[in-house]
Amino acid sequence: MPKLPIMDAKEAERLPLAFGFLLSRTKGSHRIYFKEKKRIVIPFHAGKSLHPKIVKEVLEVVDLLEN
After folding, report:
1. What pLDDT score does 2 carry?
2. At 15, is the secondary structure helix, strand, or coil?
3. Distance CA 16, CA 23 (A)
4. What is the rounded CA–CA span in Å between residue 49 and residue 67?
5. 56, 6 contact by CB (below 8 A)
6. Nearest-CA neighbor of 8 among 56, 57, 42?
7. pLDDT per residue over 31-52, tens digit each?
8. Model confidence band, residue 63 (pLDDT cutoffs 50, 70, 90)
9. DSSP class of 6
């Protein structure tokens, strides 16, 4: 499996929005996106990159990464 890219929250947010996900709600520093029955939660913490597990989840949900 190739190495996952290092992303911050703003970079990761572009993917779901480009694939038709809608911002459903915000709870604290987390933004929750929905499309049909798929859900993505992206934590927004200033100056920090996302954990590789979150990057993998985002890529899997928008179908850019094979399971």
Report:
1. 74
2. helix
3. 9
4. 23
5. no
6. 42
7. 999 999 899 999 999 889 999 9
8. confident
9. P
Measured between alpha carbons, how far is 1 from 19 in angstroms, rounded to an integer?
23
| Relative orientation angle of helices 52-61 and 9-18, to the nearest 10 degrees | 10
Single-letter residue type at 62: V
Residue whose pair of structure tokens reads 């992303």 in the numeric block: 7
Copy the structure tokens of residue 24: 């459903």
Burial of 12 (0-12, 13-18, 19+ CB in 10 A): buried
Cα–Cα distances in angstroms (integers) from residue 28 to residues 3, 9, 17, 31, 33, in the given order: 30, 14, 20, 8, 14
**Is 0.85 topped by the overall pTM?**
no
The chain-wide mean pLDDT, for the chain, equals 89
What is residue 13's predicted lDDT score, i.e. its pLDDT?
Answer: 92
At residue 13, what is the residue type? E
